[in-house]
Amino acid sequence: MFKNNDQEFAEIAADPVRRRAAIADLAGRRKTSSICAGVASAGLIVATIANPQGTGVLAGCVAGLWAIAFKFDTDLRLLRVVDRLHGDAGLPATIAPLEHTPGGT
């Protein structure tokens, strides 16, 4: 299961057009899932104040929502780093050679 997801993610990261589309999509998903997790967290706090004994399942759901939000965030960060490294043309970024100063190291 994870091998297929990893392979698909690698294919998206390698294609500049798909990568930029995935960045836009993940940014929206991250925002939505973070808002949902925040609202659910607030609901958990209110439910805990009202009845501390009955919030175990809700706490598990909130933890799952935060895990999904963090997954979107890490995927988005990784794709942005890959996009930055590939540069504007979609080609691998090149590293400029260091300039040697006379008499220096």
Descriptive report:
The chain is mainly alpha-helical and about 100 residues long. The protein has one domain. Helix content is about 75%, strand content about 0%. The protein starts with a helix and ends in a 19-residue tail after the last helix. It has 3 helices and no strands.
Number of domains: 1
Estimated structural class = mainly alpha
Largest sheet: none
**How many DSSP E strands?**
0
Give the number of helices. 3
First and last CA, distance: 51 Å
Radius of gyration equals 21 Å
Strand content: under 5%
Question: Could you give a quick summary of the protein structure above?
Answer:
By secondary structure, this protein is mainly α. Helix content is 75%, strand content 0%.
Topology:
Layout: H1 2-14, H2 16-50, H3 56-86
Helix pairs in contact: 2-3
Question: Any descriptors?
Answer:
3 helices, single chain, 105 residues, mainly alpha, elongated
